[in-house]
Design brief:
The complex is a heterodimer of chains A (76) and B (342). Chain A is mainly α and 76 residues long. Chain A contains four helices and no strands. In chain B, helix 2 crosses helix 3 and helix 8 crosses helix 9. The chains are: A mainly alpha (76), B alpha+beta (342).
């Protein structure tokens, strides 16, 4: 799996946030659009695209998009 | 032997009629957004698929809702109260630790004293479980007309600051008559349980394990409210549970009925919220026109979402031949069944 694709998949869960704001270093929980509902969208995205079961704790333990990418990658 | 076989073949249980009751008080998205200005009316409506939910007043309980729904049921369907020989009341909001609400309901409704009555404590899987119990009572020659009542008032378990759950849940009661005759035959079931998930949707205090309220309230970083004294839902865990188990449930119900997805005319799932239903529909690969949504005006009414959806789908003439019902949630507990509609 590629980091760039993951970022694209991650970003597509958002509706209001500018696409340019998504990079490996983005602290996604700091984005104003981030919410508990978006966390669920990201879990569903991991399930749909990578067949990976992402836990609430995994999201809690990640601060950047790359952190989350590495967690998903390690679970594949 | 042949006689026994013959009897078994002829035994059938049907859903005969459904009525539902919604409490008068309505909570709209406009009202919610006033309390939680970080939300917008459109966002709630689009993402969650809910525009309003009905909420009980302070002095109204699930038993009161059940009574009102049943009173409406007898008005709407001209069914003799004398003919009811069993009440199954599905609720997680009893009036008392004891006695059972269903006993009080028998008296309030003026149902015959030869009527059996019991409560069972399930949430979103409750309606399907109730159908399975009612079918068993009919097949066992124990009852002929079973009144399955689902009645829930989760609003009483919600903290005022719990934005997520106050957005999702609504109160309601539904009454379904299961009988030896009717229009929708109840076919075979798939039921399941995984108690490992019990802590992910729970009211921790107030009953006998933790009788004393802790008055502890905190929010996690996604803004989910976590309190011992109110309903706590671990959204991500519940979401993972449904993504994992509901596709398997659908597969198993189909298998037990020797049917394939193509044989199903309509899928009616527990109406958890639009967001979750969309993901489930996509994951199971169900066409949108075969997938029923019924959330907008009611919200997630827990055990009543499926009977309310059935009633609404019937009004739209959508109940034809095989309809698959699936309920899943708190417990964890899940159940699915196919009904064959005439």
């Amino acid at each position: 799996m590629k980091l760039n694709d993951f970022i694209k998949n991650f970003a597509s869960q958002f509706e209001e946030t500018d696409a340019n704001l998504f990079s490996p270093e983005t602290q996604f929980k700091e984005l104003s659009e981030w919410s508990s509902l978006l966390a669920l969208s990201v879990i569903a995205m991991a399930d749909e695209e990578y067949d990976v079961k992402l836990k609430g704790d995994d999201i809690r333990n990640a601060s950047t998009i790359e952190d989350l990418f590495n967690i998903v990658k390690s679970k594949k | 032997m042949e006689d026994i076989h013959y009897c078994k073949m002829n035994k059938k249980a049907y859903i005969k009629t459904i009525s539902y009751y919604l409490p008068e008080k309505i909570l709209t998205n406009e009202q919610l957004v006033k309390e939680f200005p970080e939300w917008t009316v459109e966002k709630v409506a689009n993402k969650i698929g809910i525009k309003q939910r009905h909420i009980v007043s302070e002095n109204e309980t699930a038993l009161d809702l059940a009574e009102k729904a049943a009173t409406l049921f007898f008005q709407e369907h001209k069914i003799a109260r004398e003919s009811i020989d069993f009440i199954l009341l599905c609720t997680q909001s009893p009036d008392y630790f004891l006695p059972t609400s269903a006993c009080i309901l028998q008296d309030r409704l003026g149902l015959p004293t030869h009527c059996g009555a019991l409560d069972f404590n399930l949430g979103c899987s409750g309606f399907v479980y109730g159908l399975s119990l009612a079918k068993g009572l009919i097949f066992g020659n124990i009852a002929k007309n079973v009144l399955l009542i689902t009645s829930e008032t989760y609003s009483k378990y919600l903290h005022p600051k719990d934005k997520g759950n106050r957005t999702i849940f609504g109160d309601a009661a539904a009454v379904t008559l299961i009988s030896t005759e009717g229009t929708a035959e109840i076919l075979d079931f798939s039921l399941g349980t995984d108690g490992q998930g019990f802590e992910n949707l729970i009211v921790r205090s107030g009953a006998l394990r933790n009788p004393v309220r802790t008055n502890k309230i905190q929010f996690d970083e996604s803004g989910n409210l976590d309190s011992d004294d109110f309903l706590y839902m671990n959204g991500s865990e519940i979401f993972n549970f449904t993504l994992e188990f509901v596709p398997l449930l659908v597969e198993d119900v189909l298998k037990r009925n020797n049917l394939s997805k193509e044989d199903i005319n309509l899928f009616i799932f527990h109406q958890a919220n639009m967001h979750m239903l969309n993901f489930l529909r996509r994951k199971i690969k169900i066409e949108e026109e075969k997938f029923y949504y019924c959330l907008e005006n009611f919200g997630n009414t827990v055990s009543s979402t499926i009977p309310i959806a059935l009633k609404e789908a019937q009004k739209e003439h959508l109940l034809k031949e095989n309809v698959l019902l699936a309920g899943f949630g708190v417990g964890y507990s899940w159940g699915g069944v196919i009904i064959n509609c005439r």
